[in-house]
TrEMBL record:
PANTHER family: SPERMIDINE/PUTRESCINE IMPORT ATP-BINDING PROTEIN POTA, SPERMIDINE_PUTRESCINE IMPORT ATP-BINDING PROTEIN POTA. Keywords: ATP-binding, Cell membrane, Ion transport, Iron, Iron transport, Membrane, Nucleotide-binding, Transport. One of its GO terms (molecular function) is ATP binding. The keyword Transmembrane does not apply. The keyword Ion transport applies. Gene3D superfamilies: P-loop containing nucleotide triphosphate hydrolases. Pfam families: ABC_tran (PF00005). InterPro entries: AAA+_ATPase, ABC_SmlMolc_Importer, ABC_transporter-like_ATP-bd, ABC_transporter-like_CS, ABC_transpr_FbpC, Mo/tungstate-bd_C_term_dom, P-loop_NTPase. Residues 13-246 form the ABC transporter domain. This is ABC transporter ATP-binding protein.
């Protein structure tokens, strides 16, 4: 696919060759990453892959062990250089457990980092942010009077109030229920884009990353596996881990012939693989185009094993028969309006844009 156009603005954060260990445990290795002005970059990956460690290094909550951190073109972290504490870095922090000051009102909480402004200005700026996050009418409330989601929005407004050049957000929506989460994600993205700050956001949720991010850095075991736009990661994954991280896939093996691999449901291109090579074929459930057959020929065998309506989509377990008599069980995801009966004869075709072919693991 053609690369998405990259924003041209200057980096507000640059990390070079970051390595970090806790005792003998290596948490982050050889990480380089930039966040440009107005850009949201998501650190995505499974639990323990080093996302929070990277954020804490940028925030100054961990002392840098190896590598270099630049904020707005100025090196603020380099081993041997004096550690710059979090409050001296122009970054806004919104962590999952960001606590509000219980004895201050919502308005005072948001105005907390704005002491430099005269009282009226401070109030105006705080109210403006509360308004943008739908919280203006709670300005005089105290934290204990708010729900968890409301408290998170106030914490976010407080972090954004001093107009930091960089926002660091660590799973900021994780304690919200699904419906509220969608709304607050939406509001947060809106405010970040309006303020024009760069943002580095940690999440383990691929959908959240795809919604929030201009670019995603997908991590595994302390390394960045792939860095790119949501579309690049979803549509041009560099390895099987990246494919699997975005959801369940059907997997099978085949042999490359004339640049293609044959599967019982159709052929897929195998770019970069040699003829005769064993290939690992990864088929996203939505790549299977399933059509009900009203009058199947007598020798037709492909059929639906099970169908579940999940709302917008239905999940089908299907049995696909190849010409050579082989049968294959696959999962297909189809629009929710299509809910065939068990046993329904079908034909299956392949949308190869959602099929990914890699060399089969040696010895597999
Ligand atoms: P999660 O999504 O679960 O928060 P993460 O990707 O943010 O995970 P980190 O919190 O950065 O991962 O942790 C990376 C690795 O370092 C993990 O293996 C973790 O157990 C380890 N680790 C993190 N903090 C410490 C610490 N203070 N002392 C020792 N080991 C730590």
């Amino acid at each position: 696919i053609a690369p998405d156009t990259a924003p041209e603005s200057a980096p507000v954060l640059a990390m070079h060759n970051i390595r970090h260990a806790y005792g003998h445990h290596l948490a982050v290795e050889d990480v380089g990453l930039e966040v440009r002005q107005g850009e949201v970059v998501c650190l995505l990956g499974p639990s323990g892959c080093g996302k929070t460690t990277l954020l804490r290094i940028v925030a100054g909550l961990e002392v840098l062990q190896q590598g270099r951190v630049e904020l707005d073109g100025v090196t603020i972290g380099r081993p041997g250089q004096a550690h710059v504490p979090p409050e001296k870095r122009n970054v806004g922090l919104a962590f999952q457990d960001s606590a509000l000051f219980p004895h201050l009102s919502v308005l005072q909480n948001v105005g907390f980092g704005l002491e430099a402004l005269p009282g009226r200005e401070r109030r105006k700026r705080a109210l403006e942010l509360l308004d943008q996050l739908g919280m203006a009418r709670y300005a005089e409330s105290y934290p204990h009077m708010l729900s968890g989601g409301q408290q998170q929005r106030v914490a976010l407004a407080r972090a954004l109030a001093p107009a930091p050049q960089l926002m660091l957000l660590d799973e900021p929506f994780s304690s919200l229920d699904a419906r509220l989460r969608d709304r607050i994600r939406d509001d947060t993205l809106h405010v970040l884009k309006r303020v024009g700050a760069g943002a580095l956001l940690v999440t383990h949720d691929p959908e959240e990353a795809m919604f929030m991010a201009d670019r995603i850095a997908l991590m595994r075991d302390g390394h960045i596996v792939q860095l790119g736009t949501p579309r690049e990661l979803y549509c041009a994954p560099v390895d099987p881990f990246v494919v699997s991280f975005f959801g369940e896939v059907n997997e099978l093996e085949g042999e490359v012939r004339q640049g293609r691999v044959a599967t019982p449901v159709g052929e897929a291109p195998a770019p970069g693989l040699a003829d005769g090579q064993r290939a690992r074929v990864m088929i996203r459930p939505e790549a299977l185009r399933v059509v009900a057959l009203e009058e199947p020929p007598a020798d037709h065998h492909s059929h639906v094993i099970m169908a579940k309506l999940l709302g917008r989509t239905s999940l089908l377990h299907i049995c696909a028969h190849a010409g050579d008599g082989r049968e294959l069980h696959l999962h297909a995801r189809v629009p929710g309006v299509f809910l065939p009966d068990e046993g329904q004869p079908i034909t299956v075709r392949l949308d190869t844009s959602q099929v990914f072919v890699f060399p089969a693991a040696a010895g597999a």
